[in-house]
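User: Teach me something about this protein's shape.
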Amino acid sequence: MTETSFREKILTILRLRAARRAAARRTEGRRERGFNLIEIMVVLTIISMLMGAVGFSAFAILDRARRKDTRNVMKAIEQAIVQFQTESPDPCPASLSDLTQRKILNKEPQNAVARELLVKNLLLEAGKEGFVTSSGITPKGKQVFQEASEAWMSYLALKPPKPNITLTKDMLRIYGEEGLNQPSQEVGLLQIVVNSEPTNAAYYAGLAEYAYKAHDARLGDLASTKAIALAPAESKKRIQVSLAEVKKNAAKEAKSPSTGGTGAVTATPEGTVTATTSTPTTKK
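Assistant: First, the predicted structure itself:
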């Protein structure tokens, strides 16, 4: 073997070793590099598609379950209402709070707070559209207004030291001309209001008007004098003429036969109230 061939052999061996080392480095580099961005995006897309397909199915199942549960609840409520109407002599309550208050009153008939809340609920019911029309109060409206009146009288029968003024003002429309048209009851309400607001000319004028309509001329004159005294100067003459006309018309009505008795609510200066009922009389 010549020296030249020996050198070539050595060089060939070195080249092969260098090539193997380079190949090993390239393989090792690929192992450390991991996934590229495109590969990750492809995997995430596949996962999201699978989750979407499963999610739509799950939402549909949940929606069907909610509908079934709602139908079951509605059926239970319907059965409870039918059972209540069958077993209870009282009318079906207008709301859950109304039912709760009635239950409290059955156990504690002297509970003034529960009776006050019952009156509030009945006033809300009476405030719905359709109970009072241009031709007057409807039969359904009269029934609701009468229930509110009975609840109010039961509340006053407990003799609260200071009746709820907001509730009292709301009751004015129940006994007013557009409601049950009971002037004597309206007088009792206005007496409570003017005791609470003694400088309000409008309420004194209203008290005078309904006192005349209830044929209580003495109370009407006192309230009329107070209303005129409290009214602004530019309104005094108008109020005086208006109330005088009401008094004149009420006096004419008093000469006609009476058709029935009315209840009355009287307020004392201290704010306490009493409820009374007058006997119907007929003039011949």
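Now, about its shape. Residues 183-279 form one domain. Residues 259-284 have pLDDT under 50 and may be disordered. If you'd like, I can walk through any region in more detail.
User: That's plenty for now, thanks!
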